[in-house]
């Protein structure tokens, strides 16, 4: 928002901080428990950030919706209504994510198991911080707005009647007086109006619904066909970076040595006197027999 009071930059930053705290807490707990840290775990923060920011938007949207409801003026009732609206969807999505990753810990691959443990635990902490830390931040931000304080410095701002002649940049970043703005709720967001008045009615048309069903059927058929064409396994080239020497190595290996099959190795588990010529001949005879 261009309002120097209604701007919620710090609120959004705290939503990202909440996801970061979840990552730190989960990583610290797993390392304390002795779970190995593998390279793939370094990708987990990006997943947690995506889910944490999504939950943050749900919380903020529910909070904004309570401002337009009658009888929801005090902080306690608004926050209770916010949790009633947002906590259910956040809980369901978090639960499905946690179950998905914890089921992944049953795999036989140690690296995948570690990744699922770290990420699943991070989802749990992300949910806890969103329900506690971020909810408190929403209330603090609301009190800042009620106190007519600047979004950047949190300093009280006055009302300047000739503020309309000043630039939008000044209105957003000024530290002194500000245009006559009220902390009262704003009108409905244009995006909400678009989905409610245009997008929703468009999809309730019977011909559009029929078209959606046909498209979904085509999508489902293509998905089933794709599943039948899938092959198990993994191409080791995909595990290396683009400029790695591993890629031409596997290309040459497939080109020149693919006809020979896998290598066969023989391990002698007992102590052997390699200085004894008789022993060496016995080993050579054993090798010839294997060949």
From TrEMBL:
Q: Which GO terms describe its cellular component?
A: membrane
Instruction: Give yes or no: UniProt keyword Glycoprotein.
Output: yes
Q: Where does it live in the cell?
A: Membrane
Q: SUPFAM superfamilies from the entry?
A: Multidrug efflux transporter AcrB transmembrane domain (SSF82866)
Keyword terms of this UniProt record: Glycoprotein, Membrane, Transmembrane, Transmembrane helix
Asked if the keyword Repeat belongs to this entry, the reply reads no
Show the stretches that span the lipid bilayer: 9-38, 44-63, 83-109, 121-142, 207-226
Q: How does it sit in the membrane?
A: Multi-pass membrane protein
Tell me where in this chain the SSD domain is found: 1-140
Q: Which InterPro entries match?
A: Patched_domain-protein, PTHD_SSD, SSD
Q: Which family does it belong to?
A: Belongs to the patched family.
This one is known as PTHD3 protein
| Species assigned in the record | Cochlearius cochlearius
């Amino acid at each position: 928002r261009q309002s120097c009071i209604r701007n919620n930059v710090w609120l959004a930053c705290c939503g990202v901080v909440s996801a970061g705290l979840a990552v730190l807490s989960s990583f610290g707990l797993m390392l304390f428990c002795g779970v190995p840290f593998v390279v793939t775990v370094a990708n987990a923060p990006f997943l947690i950030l995506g889910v944490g920011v999504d939950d943050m938007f749900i919380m903020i949207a529910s909070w904004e919706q309570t401002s337009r409801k009658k009888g929801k003026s005090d902080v306690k009732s608004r926050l209770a209504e916010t949790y009633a609206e947002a906590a259910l969807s956040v809980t369901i999505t978090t639960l499905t994510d946690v179950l998905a990753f914890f089921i992944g810990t049953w795999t036989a691959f140690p690296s995948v198991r570690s990744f699922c443990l770290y990420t699943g635990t991070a989802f749990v902490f992300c949910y806890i911080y969103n329900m506690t830390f971020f909810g408190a931040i929403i209330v603090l931000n609301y009190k800042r707005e009620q106190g007519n304080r600047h979004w950047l410095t949190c300093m009280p701002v006055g009302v300047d009647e000739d503020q309309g002649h000043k630039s939008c940049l000044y209105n957003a970043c000024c530290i002194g007086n500000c245009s006559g703005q009220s902390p009262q709720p704003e009108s409905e967001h244009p995006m909400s109006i678009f989905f409610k008045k245009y997008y929703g009615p468009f999809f309730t048309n019977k011909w559009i619904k029929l078209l959606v069903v046909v498209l979904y059927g085509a999508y489902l058929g293509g998905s089933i066909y794709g599943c039948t064409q899938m092959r198990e396994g993994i191409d080791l080239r995909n595990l290396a970076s683009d400029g790695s020497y591993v890629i031409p190595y596997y290309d040459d290996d497939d080109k020149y040595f693919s006809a020979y099959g896998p290598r066969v190795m023989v391990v002698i588990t007992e102590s052997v006197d390699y200085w004894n010529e008789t022993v060496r001949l016995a080993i050579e005879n054993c090798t010839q027999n294997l060949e």
